[in-house]
Design goal:
Radius of gyration of chain B: 22 Å
Distance between the termini of chain A: 11 Å
Protein name (chain A): Peptide/nickel transport system permease protein
CATH architecture of chain B: Orthogonal Bundle
Structural class of chain B: mainly alpha
Number of strands of chain B: 0
CATH topology of chain B: MetI-like fold
Largest interface: A-B, 48 and 43 residues
CATH class of the largest domain in chain A: Mainly Alpha
Number of strands of chain A: 0
InterPro entries (chain A): BPD_transp_1_N, MetI-like, MetI-like_sf
Order of helices and strands of chain B: HHHHHHHHHHHH
CATH topology of the largest domain in chain A: MetI-like fold
Transmembrane segments (chain A): 12-32, 103-123, 144-164, 200-220, 259-284, 304-330
Number of domains of chain B: 1
Number of helices of chain B: 12
CATH superfamily of chain B: MetI-like
Radius of gyration of chain A: 24 Å
Largest sheet of chain B: none
Distance between the termini of chain B: 8 Å
Number of helices of chain A: 14
Order of helices and strands of chain A: HHHHHHHHHHHHHH
Structural class of chain A: mainly alpha
Oligomer: heterodimer
CATH class of chain B: Mainly Alpha
Organism (chain A): Thermocatellispora tengchongensis
Shape of chain A: globular
Helix content of chain B: over 70%
Domain ABC transmembrane type-1 (chain A): 97-323
Chain lengths: 337, 274
């Protein structure tokens, strides 16, 4: 109950921040150079055609009027109409967000497990060969261009070995997967579509691996650093001096204390992962949120840009909120109030 | 302790050697290849490595080895200049805000908060898409998205330094404020910046290449690693590795050089503090 109240209050506090983001994006995208109407008209369009198109999307109205209309729509869940496609933005967003979240969540989960295991392993061998190897590997991971890594994995997995599917799409169209959430793995599981599940998993393999490799590096470095601190702490030394057995020492004293700082970092890495996803989606023709937002940005599709920026900001703050709650659950000194 | 220091020095040396080799290769490019970076060999588009073209040619018949070498000039140059600009602008803002405080400090920190409410690559992507690509714009974009972090870092340092006895001593002996700031506060507040800046250069290279990969960076046919990888995307599916693997490998090695250098400096600072 207390957690719920805390969440509710924090979400309410976020409203002014999000309103600021909405106002800023709305103004900036209109002030900066570029015209969304020119991109949808043919080369032979006359000035009358342009004026008609402008009126159709309400762009002939004064800016304050446009903004009030937009804000009114937001309250009722209407994100406007895409200038490029003519379809409602909310609908397009709904089918685009699932594939991206699926990619990010699976990769982040995988990276968290690997980073925790390797980071603690490395810290317990601090200064020795194994530790140095892990640290150098993390530095290489930190220096990898994710889009290039994706291409190299395609080269190896598809072109050379033939294990992975071609980097186009998320599921084999022959499997007749019906669209529910857009997250293909989830959709296949919900509809009991076995072949589609296998195909989705197959297609997820390389992009997830790409993203996981680039985000595991910063997590690993941080886990190692905080494990080193715990190992040097008085509490740990006392537990060790009392002759506690290895397993209890590891689980009860090292693991939990080490993981306390991880949620905040994972939230930060989540933001980093969203940036990487734009590039990785491009490599694998994933047709997710990243590619959609990029297209909107390039064509100055005002409603699409506004919706994507608002969504990224919303996700970012919500993820940090979740991190706070998890942190409180892990660290007995922190109380949610 | 000496062991930590030795590991730190080996990281610093390795990183510096890698960077020196890349810089040399970039400078000596005309001696290392007979082809110009934008020179087209009409007889041999997509030629495999070997023969007249050491690393083959791309879709346009341009020599990959030559382009990879010349691209180092642009990639390194843009990254270093952009980070230098970010360091100077960010540090100055942080210095002034941190030393005097007051409303200027409040305004600056709110602006920094807004910048840091978005993932940095997303921010760079949005700004580059809205303002357009081109080399100069990219320098500005990368400097702009990095400056807030330096402002915050230097401000925090300055706030603790200004309370120290030696600043008080300088003040009571009648030194002018700008003199104190320039001679005593600034040099000491830059300590963390020295560690972050090399890491940041590597990150700037990745950002530049990423933007170019998406078509927002250096316009064709400019030789830039990200743009080269982008052009080679279609070749990968056909099994032609040489158009995209070499530029990425150079990029990786160069960023790794910066990472090793930054990590080594960090490690040395930690070891000395202990």
């Amino acid at each position: 109950m207390r957690v719920l109240r805390f969440l509710l209050r924090r979400l309410l506090q976020l409203l002014p921040v999000l309103l600021g983001v909405v106002v800023l994006t709305f103004l900036l995208v209109r002030v900066l150079p570029g015209d969304p109407i020119r991109t949808i008209l043919g080369p032979n369009a006359t000035a009358e055609d342009a004026a008609a198109a402008r009126a159709r999307y309400g762009l002939d109205q004064p800016v304050w009027r446009q903004f009030l209309d937009y804000l009114g729509g937001l309250v009722t869940g209407d994100l406007g109409t895409s200038i490029q496609s003519g379809a409602p933005v909310a609908g397009e967003l709904a089918v685009r967000i699932g594939p991206t979240l699926e990619l990010v969540v699976i990769a982040l989960a995988l990276a968290l497990v690997v980073a925790t295991a390797l980071g603690i392993w490395s810290a317990r061998r601090a200064g020795r060969f194994g530790d140095h190897t892990v640290r150098i590997a993390a530095l290489v991971g930190n220096s990898l261009p994710e889009f290039w890594l994706g291409l190299v994995l395609v080269l190896l997995g598809y072109s050379v070995l033939g294990w992975a599917p071609a980097p186009s799409g998320r599921v084999d169209p022959d499997t007749d997967l019906s669209l529910l959430t857009g997250a293909d793995l989830l959709d296949a599981a919900l509809t009991g579509n076995g072949p589609a599940f296998v195909s989705a998993l197959h297609h997820l393999m390389l992009p997830v691996l790409t993203l996981a490799i680039v985000i595991v590096a910063p997590l690993l470095r941080s886990v190692r650093a905080s494990a080193l601190e715990v190992l040097a702490s008085e509490a740990y030394a006392a537990a060790e001096a009392h002759g506690l057995r290895g397993r209890l020492l590891l689980r009860g004293y090292l693991l939990r204390a080490t993981l306390v700082r991880l949620p905040a970092l994972a939230a930060l890495v989540f933001g980093f992962a969203i940036g990487s996803t734009v590039l990785i989606e491009y490599v694998f023709s994933w047709q997710g949120f990243g590619q959609w937002a990029l297209r909107g940005l390039l064509y100055r599709d005002y409603p699409v840009v506004q919706a994507s920026v608002l969504l990224i900001a919303l996700f970012y703050v919500v993820v940090f909120l979740i991190a706070d709650v998890v942190h409180a659950a892990l660290d007995p000194r922190v109380r949610i109030s | 302790m000496t062991k930590d220091l030795r590991f730190a020095s080996s990281l610093i040396v390795t990183g510096s050697v890698i960077l020196a080799v890349v810089v040399l290769a970039a400078l000596l490019a005309p001696l290392l290849t007979g082809w110009g970076p934008e020179e087209i060999d009409p007889a041999a588009p997509l030629a495999a490595p070997g023969g007249a073209h050491l690393l083959g040619t791309d879709l346009n018949g341009m020599d990959v080895w030559s382009r990879v070498l010349y691209a180092a000039r642009l990639d390194l140059g843009v990254a270093v200049v952009a980070v230098a600009l970010a360091v100077v602008a960010g540090s100055l803002l942080g210095l002034v805000a941190g030393y005097w405080g007051g409303w200027a400090d409040d305004v600056l920190m709110r602006v920094v908060d807004v910048f840091q409410a978005f993932p940095t690559f997303i921010l760079a992507l949005a700004v580059a898409a809205l303002f357009g690509g081109g080399t100069l714009n990219l320098v500005a974009v990368i400097a702009l998205v990095n400056a807030p972090a330096y402002a915050r870092l230097v401000r925090a340092e300055v706030r603790s330094i200004r309370e120290l006895p030696y600043i008080e001593a300088a003040r009571t002996s009648g030194a002018p404020p700008w003199g104190i700031l320039w001679r005593h506060v600034l040099p000491n507040s830059l300590t963390p910046v020295r560690v972050i800046a090399p890491l940041n250069c590597g990150w700037a290279m990745l950002t530049l290449a990423g933007l170019s990969f998406l078509g927002l960076g250096v316009p064709v046919p400019g030789a830039e690693w990200g743009a080269m990888i982008s052009l080679g995307t279609a070749d990968v599916v056909a099994g032609r590795w040489w158009t995209s693997v070499p530029p990425g490998l150079f990029l990786l090695v160069c960023v790794l050089g910066f990472s090793l250098l930054g990590e080594g400096l960090q490690e040395r600072a930690d070891a000395v503090r202990r």
